[in-house]
Amino acid sequence: MRSKQARKPQQAAKPLWASKTLWFNLVVAALAAAEAASGLLQPLLPGNIYGWLTFALTVGNTALRVITTSAVALRPAPAEQAGEEQR
């Protein structure tokens, strides 16, 4: 018996900058770095907020992974490059 994933047609890989998951993680990393450098929020937040934020990040990443429909590539595949050059 074949899996459902094997039946899906191959989609072209999208560029890295078009990934919602990548942007979500970049924004989270930038905010975490800004907080670590400034320390402005930590005194204002309750002690357990970082546990809840970790949970929220996990849920966010999981949700983005579930809605992902195509692969991400650093460079387009050779067939895609040839198709773009002919246009």
Shape: elongated
Give the tally of β-strands. 2
Q: Radius of gyration in whole Å, from Cα?
A: 19 Å
Distance between the termini: 41 Å
Compressed to H and E, one letter per element, the order equals HEHHEH
Q: Describe the main β-sheet briefly.
A: 2 strands, parallel
Strand line-up of the largest beta sheet: 1-2
**Derived structural class:** mainly alpha
Low-confidence stretches: none
Domain count: 1
| Percent range of helical residues | 55-70%
The number of helices is 4
Mean pLDDT: 78
Strand percentage lies at under 5%
Description:
There is one protein chain. By secondary structure, the protein is mainly alpha-helical. The protein has one domain. Helix content is 59%, strand content 5%. The chain has helices spanning 4-7, 20-38, 49-67, 78-86; strands at 14-15, 72-73. It has a two-stranded parallel ribbon. Helix 2 runs antiparallel to helix 3. The mean pLDDT is 78.
Question: Can you summarize this structure?
Answer:
It is built from four helices and two strands; from the N terminus they run H-E-H-H-E-H. The longest helix has 19 residues, at 20-38. The chain has helices spanning 4-7, 20-38, 49-67, 78-86; strands at residues 14-15, 72-73.
